[in-house]
Amino acid sequence: MPEPLLEICNLTKMYEEQKILENINLKIVQGEVVVIVGPSGCGKSTLLRCINALEPIQKGEIKLDGEEIEAGRKNLAALREKIGMVFQNYELFPHLTVLDNLMLAPLKVQKRQKEEVRAEAMELLGRVGLSEKAGSYPRQLSGGQKQRVAIVRALCMHPEILLFDEVTAALDPEMVREVLDVMLDLAKQGRTMIIVTHEMQFAKAVADRIVFIDDGHIVEESSPETFFECPKSGRAKQFLNIFTFERV
Ligand SMILES: Nc1ncnc2c1ncn2[C@@H]1O[C@H](COP(=O)(O)OP(=O)(O)OP(=O)(O)O)[C@@H](O)[C@H]1O
Ligand SMILES: [Mg+2]
Predict the structure, then answer these.
(1) Against a cut of 0.90, is the pTM above it?
(2) Which of 60, 73, 79, 66 is nearest to 21 (CA)?
(3) Does residue 45 line the site of ligand 1, with CB under 6 A?
């Protein structure tokens, strides 16, 4: 077993007196795609936010490349650059063009060369089918196009791991597919990803491993085949029933 890229040990996260995540253990090796599923409110977004140190944790540790990620730590900014996060709401700057949105952090945060960054941003835009939108403003794009730009923006920072939190949840069905296809491509390229999604067919196709969380605990961790064909726990069975319909 290779060294994990990301290692979460005994993580407990509380909001005031309430335990939101308890004793979470998870190891992810380079190139692995882990899909996190579970009922609303079980703690999926909170887990991603802890990994990115957007939330302080009360117990345990999270390590990326062997280095501890901790809110308030000195090297946090450098560690965060290794983590690309894409949310449900794209959070593009409305007053900047697509290209300027993409170039902003690589230029300002990473102090890279403008021409090199521009060339890379254009190349990545091309790969998601949006070359001709480089000069457009976010308001001139569809939801699916904005989300593809948000993914490219994360890639422009050269992250070692990508976190996706229900990135298609706000999109119309025909736009969902174009965004999922981009994520499937990233998986094929060997990117390390943690994906939170309610798209079960997609989860089955993209995941190396499914992690099922219920009420702040990892209840089940298995291959997509095992999870979807014969889930072990009653809770997972119950959860999967949400996605099936009986003919009336
Ligand atoms: N800032 C906060 N303060 C207090 N409680 C919070 C806060 N953020 C989230 N919670 C609580 O933590 C629990 C987990 O929330 P979280 O957003 O992680 O769930 P989720 O699994 O992502 O749900 P969904 O599928 O609906 O997005 C919920 O009970 C939620 O109410
Ligand atoms: Mg959530």
Answers:
(1) yes
(2) 60
(3) yes
